[in-house]
Each structure stands twice: as C-alpha cells, then as structure tokens.
Amino acid sequence: MGNFSFYSAFAKTIIAFIIVAAVASCNPNRVFEKNTDIPNNVWDKEFKPEFEFEITDTNLVYSLSVNVRHTNFYQFNNLWVMAYTTFPDGKTISSRVELPLADKDGKWHGDCLGDICDANILIQEKALFNQLGKYKLTFEQIMRNKSLNLDQLPSIMAIGLKVEKINTTIE
User: Fold this and answer.
1) Is position 78 within any domain?
2) Which of 34, 56, 86, 120 has the smallest set of CB atoms within 10 Å of its CB?
C-alpha cells in the first residue's frame, strides 16, 4: 500500500511538471503555428498544404517563418516553393520562395537528431497586413528536374507556418 501512494505522488508530480512546461513554452507573440505532415514523406507536386490564420490588428508588424522537417537523406541544400497568399477580400498573390536547408558545404540548418532535421526559415521579417480577417497561405513544391522525377520530392516529412507579432508598430 505504501508503494502505491509513492507512485501516485510521483505521477502527479510528473503531470504537474508537464503542465508547467507547456504553459511556460507558450509565446504570447505567436499568432499562429501549424505543421502539416507530408504523406509518406514524399511531397507530390499535387499536394498543396494550406494554412489559415487570422489577423486582428493591422497596426502591428509580423514575422513569417516556414518550418521544414526533412530527413538527412534529402539530396538538396534548399527547397523551392510557390507561396500563394489569399487575403480576406479574396485576392490571391503568389511568390517564389527559396527555403535554404543547408549551407554550401552541406551542413544542415536547424536542429537535427538522428536522421531527422527541423529547420525554421524566416521568409518575411517585417510583414504588414493591411486587412483584418482570415488569411490563407498555400505552399506548392516547385523543385523540378526531369531526370530525378521531382514531381515527387522524397525526404520531406512536414511543412509548417509560424506567424508572430514583432514588438513594434507601424509609425
């Protein structure tokens, strides 16, 4: 009976620690963060992950980052994507974006553990949103090479978007 109360108290302590760690890791400047798994870790050109977030203050400045999870078997130093931004009024713009994943010597950016690397790449440091409401950002992988059949890009496990407030306002 004595062992049961010890394990019960230990379990409660562990649960309390997890809750405190989760609350402490919250970033009050984070507006949005979501990651989408790539089916079978092969990014098919037809798979276009979408991320929808809401802007409630057009007087703030924001940063936009892309999260990329890949294996160390990924055979390129970068990843090219087409980013489609749809504004609350329905207008869509597109831009070609390079996501550098390694330096020129092949050393991966980000955090790697075993065969998996997580990179967070800043794509816009001082973004301004001039409309209140829901925005949608869609990513399409545009790596193309007929001899390597990159219509299906292997070793990309997930892609995500992070939107954060920067502690500054429009002047």
Assistant:
1) yes
2) 56
- Give the separation between CA 165 and CA 114, rounded to whole angstroms: 32
Distance CA 121, CA 100 (A): 7
pLDDT at site 23? 44
- The reply to whether 161 falls in a domain is yes
Residues 6+ apart with CB under 8 A from 156: 38, 41, 42, 43, 68, 69, 70, 74, 79, 141
How many domains would you assign to the chain? Answer: 1
Place of tokens 């489609």: 84
- Look at residue 77 and tell me if it is in a domain: yes
Q: Name the band, by pLDDT with cuts 50, 70 and 90, for residue 125.
A: very high
Q: How confident is the model at residue 21 (pLDDT cuts 50, 70, 90)?
A: very low
Of 141, 122, 152, residue with least CA distance to 83: 141
Model-level pTM? 0.81
